[in-house]
Amino acid sequence: MQQGYRIERPHRPAAHYRLPALPSPGPARLPVSDNGTDLAEKADTAMYKDDEDRIDAAEQLAEHNPHAAAEAFSAIACDQAVGDQVRLTAAQQLADVDPSAAAPACLAIARDGTVGDEVRRSAAELLADVDRRAAAPACVAIACDGTVGDEVRLSAAELLADVDPSAAAPACVAIARDGTVGDEVRRSAAEQLAALGASA
After folding, report:
1. What is the rounded CA–CA span in Å between residue 75 and residue 32?
2. Is 199 helix (H, G, I), strand (E, B) or coil?
3. Same domain, 173 and 113
4. DSSP code string of 83-136
């Protein structure tokens, strides 16, 4: 047997053990109670596809954090980029969660000339329910706005007579003197004005 001779075996790479692939867990979903801040941010921003989704987020938030929900509803109601009906819905929800915070939101809608007449009137009526004194400026803004429909202007003046009679007279005068307003509405405004004078 020859000395110093060594048989070399072919090198084999070491086997690597591979762990079986695990299914992707997907995006983590926190419970609403742990994720309240996130919901508030979504309700307060344009992270959703549409306005309705922001309302839904605020409603979910109301179940766990009414204070944060009130802030979210207020942000939606005061956002001019949001649709009229959604803004009104947010104001209504806000009145349920925090009535004291609803007044500024309702006033913002009622005074916004870009909002539809009926929604502005509804906001003023809601405002009268939560804060009668604060409803007066909203009613004045609608009643004295020549771009608003005649009937809506008259109803705002009538609501104003209920919440603040002293402020209703100028609104009635504005309608009665407006030649672009229909005759029947002008006459009704004059009659409302006469009634205010009789009760003064």
Report:
1. 20
2. helix
3. no
4. -HHHHHHHHHHHHHH-HHHHHHHHHHHHT-TTS-HHHHHHHHHHHHHH-HHHHH
Smallest Cα–Cα separation from 170: which of 139, 148, 134? 139
Residues 141, 95 share a domain: no
Residue 49: pLDDT band with limits 50, 70, 90: low
Would residue 11 count as lying in a domain?
no
CB neighbourhood size of 35 (10 A):
17
Q: Give a yes or no: residue 158 inside a domain.
A: yes
How much is the pTM? 0.74
Q: pLDDT for 35-48, tens place per residue?
A: 455 555 555 554 55
Structural domain harbouring 196: 131-200
Domain annotation covers residue 179: yes
Torsion sign, CA atoms 42, 47, 51, 57: negative
- The backbone torsions φ and ψ at residue 125, rounded to the nearest 5 degrees and listed phi first, read -65, -40
pLDDT at residue 29 is higher than 90: no
With tokens 């009229």, the residue in question is: 84
Residues 6+ apart with CB under 8 A from 58: 39, 43, 69, 72, 73, 76, 90, 93
Q: How far apart (Å, rounded) are the C-alpha atoms in residues 147 and 119?
A: 14
